[in-house]
Each structure stands twice: as structure tokens, then as C-alpha cells.
């Protein structure tokens, strides 16, 4: 993992990171529209949305509130976890989560079980590709991952155990606050890690192979 901080990455890396954040938001919004449950972080956002008395399609708006608070927290306790990548995630996730919900409603105006499953599957695919892309480019982490890394250093626990405990905690809090818990919540626990890992690996292989080839071409011209 690269060092976190306010260094300026290459433009291409920033564009791809932003695109990853866009996909993450759009996928989360479509998952919310499916009404079959959400992943742990999405469930937390949904709980905050509920207590703020926002409509279901405004889950992205709730994410801005949460991310703003967590960003301030990280800047206070350890600012190395806030970077260009994490700020890109904050800026673009929320608005595209709202748009993802609207897109689901536009494409599938009538929510029946079959269409709910289709929207949920499409949303998960978009979300996991986005996360894989965001992680693969590696110019920062989202604020939830930043908090997880901070807790790992604070407690001395393994990252795996900290991640499990943190995700479980935010999911429980989100459910208590009125977030939508469903079958999809439990499915994401099983498939989330392997899917994101697969997409990250494939993207890294293709992207960094291309970067190396471009570097060799540039060196050959000198």
C-alpha cells in the first residue's frame, strides 16, 4: 500500500479513481432501490438516512453527512488516512448513489421480485467493479477503510479481525437506526471480499501492464 497523504497523483490515476467512486455510488443506489437489503456500509448509510428523515432515494445525501464527520475525525486522529483518493470517493459516491437509485426506478418502475433481483445483481456488479477499480489504482482509501486501518493500529488486532468487527458494528448500528436489512446483506458478507479481490486483481494486471509498456516506449524514444 502506498503512503497516504496529499500528494498529487497522475491525472490518469485520478480519473480512474473518480470513475471507481462513481461506480460504487451508482451500484449502492441501485442496491438500495432493489429493497432486498444492503452491504454493511450501505446499511449504516441507510440508517443515518432514516434518522435524518430523508427519502430512500437520498441515501447518497446521507453518505455525505457520514463521510464529512469521519473525514474530520481522521484529520484529527491521523491525517495520513485522508488523501486525494479518499476525497474523490466522498465527493462522487453520494451524488451517484442518488442517481443510481433514480436509474433503478427509471429502468424498473414496478418492483417485483424478479426485477428486484435483477436490479440487485446489476447493482452488486457495478459496486464491486467500482471498488476493485478504486482499490487497484491505489491513491487512497475511503473513510470507512481509513477508520478501519486506524483502529487496527490502535488496537494491535489483525486487519481481518478489525474489519469484521467494524463491519458488524456499523451494520448493527445501521439496522437499529432503521436501515434496510435483507437477504442481500448476508449474501454480500459471503461474496463481497472474493468479488472485489477478483476485479482488483484483473484491473491491476491490465492497467499496470499498460503503464509499464508505455514507460518502455517512452524510454525507447529517448
Strand elements, count? 0
Number of helices: 8
The largest sheet, given as strand count, sense and whether it forms a barrel, is: none
- Average pLDDT over all residues: 87
Q: What level of helicity do the residues show? A: over 70%
Structural class: mainly alpha
Give the amount of beta strand, in percent.
Answer: under 5%
Low-confidence stretches: 1-6
- The helix-strand sequence is HHHHHHHH
Question: How would you sum up the global shape?
Answer: globular
* Straight-line distance between termini: 31 Å
What radius of gyration results from the CA coordinates? 18 Å
- Provide the number of structural domains: 1
Question: How are the SSEs ordered, and which strands pair?
Answer:
Blueprint: H1 11-34, H2 40-51, H3 59-77, H4 84-107, H5 113-137, H6 143-155, H7 159-176, H8 183-221
